[in-house]
Amino acid sequence: MTDIGLERWRLILGEPAGSCLGGLSGDAAAQDAALDWLYGRDEQLDQRDIRRQGGTGPSQLTTVDWLDDITRLFPKETVERLQRDAVERYEIDDIVTDPDVLQRIEPNPSLLRAVLRTKHLMNPEVLRLARRIVEAVVRDLMERLATEVRQSFSGARSRRSSRFKQARDFDARRTIRANLGNYRPEEQRVYVETPYFMSRTRRQLSQWQVILLVDQSGSMLSSVIHSAVTAACLWGLPGVRTHLIAFDTDVVDLTSDVSDPVELLMKSQLGGGTDIARAVRYAAQLVEQPRRTIVAVISDFFEGGSEADLVRGVRGLVEQGSIVLGLAALDEQADPAYDRVCAQKLANVGAWVGAMTPGELAAFVAERVGR
User: Fold this and answer.
1) In a 3-state reduction of DSSP, which class is residue 134?
2) 246 and 236 in contact (C-beta within 8 Å)?
3) Same domain, 280 and 224
4) What is the mean pLDDT of residues 125-134?
5) Which pLDDT tens digit goes with each residue over 253-292?
């Protein structure tokens, strides 16, 4: 087969398409064998009376062989997708529990999640090798988020005008309001004669508390990772005192480890039930100045404890002047899956409910601290 388009369709459809599209050879046959090693175990193929069978590649691939093959045969983005499907969709745990595999695998976020899910299965030697994945991915996350945090905290924007014209300080609202007289309806445009800018100040900031309450249930794994990194980036910033609390049915204060997100994640215990109300009660005990406190509850809001107690606890925090964020996701995608009924009840008593990326949370904190 020489037609690239037909070859790709043959790789997608597998052996059943061979009678129509022809056979494979060389790297294409090896790619087919690698894809079959992974996707040939899909239960839906049996249900649809379809079986993928590899071409002329190796008769039996081990996990190590498979990783070597996909690294050689596919681009990096495809390799990461295949690895993600292996650990998340098909739960091939030896990808992160086999020492030979861990020594050669390229760290990425999917593998970090797999390590955190399976670290309790690892002996000390394997855990040492797996830590390399945790360190590499966390370092990358820290570098990217630290830049966003520094930008957010580079100086609080005041409402005073500035004679220094910088794009980041452009006051769009005031500029539009002041130039509405130049609106041309036939063009649907406002012509700006006088732009306005806000000044940035580095005035002495009053201390704020930021209390992150992180649900440790398995579905919140990405949020646990990004919460640890976010807390580390906020740690030590002027005007901010950060607490990191993990919870399931128990509550664990991880604030003493917040400056070392790698160690923090290696200590995390995923799974178990969920008692959000208990975590909120613990947070309430930490509050020193209610009107200078942000409590971020990072959870899917599937409450295993008393929902009434949860709502009561959030209402108490709001009534005393604290800002309560109910975050259904805190990661790069900010793609939430949560109990909307429970979340709505929290919104009804004054919580801000939604999803944020870590950068958006940092910007939110910076805006409040700088006021």
Assistant:
1) helix
2) no
3) yes
4) 90
5) 999 989 899 988 988 877 778 999 999 999 999 999 999 9
